[in-house]
């Protein structure tokens, strides 16, 4: 199988590593590097080789253009786009089989939680993720990263949209929400470093979520209240606490969720985030920004 990875930044390199480890022949599209099996454009790549699987891993603002080109060129393989799918919600005429890279769905924690709540009546949910932005990519200047730039698709809402996807995946799509966001710290960025969201899911579950670039401790957790259980899932400690019982999950390799995601997509197992589900997350992102701007509730219509 031949795979094409579009973009060779940190996430593009990771996909190349994972896919090569899975035994696939991997090619790259990048204007910035010259490597064996690399091309400077998508058009040149598709004129030279036939690819079974394409990964879109360049800047979010360029995703829509790539998807349009693949449709124009009648590409008939499988595509996975990194998250978020596009910068803003819009109707996209896409005939290519496309998935979105919300690989946190494949974390054993999420899979265990899905089983734990299967027969439970969930009362409410609290979710939190925070990490100090300068520690994300220590080898780079955070102030020059895409995370720092609004125009490049940065900011906690898009950077940490994994939380939006897994909350929808576990508890149903959002119905209405309100949010506040902003740049509150002295970080040298123009994007928002903080966001709080309250929303109700279609299962009538109230959910609260905080996202930030500020937490020097690095925390990622989820608290679920049901009629019989309090469940606290700690992604950093890799443990789930159910009332007074603690379940320690096996440690996973840093690439585990990426590996499982690619395998699920290529084997058509039905667990990966679909194109339509990815668009719903983008629609939610737009609603969060609108709510924060207008200081009012927004409904999913």
Automatic annotation (TrEMBL):
Domain Gfo/Idh/MocA-like oxidoreductase N-terminal, residue spans: 1-94
SUPFAM superfamilies: Glyceraldehyde-3-phosphate dehydrogenase-like, C-terminal domain, NAD(P)-binding Rossmann-fold domains
UniProt GO MF annotations: nucleotide binding
Protein's UniProt name: Uncharacterized protein
The organism's place on the tree of life at top rank: Bacteria
Domain GFO/IDH/MocA-like oxidoreductase: 111-223
Pfam families the UniProt entry points to: GFO_IDH_MocA, GFO_IDH_MocA_C3
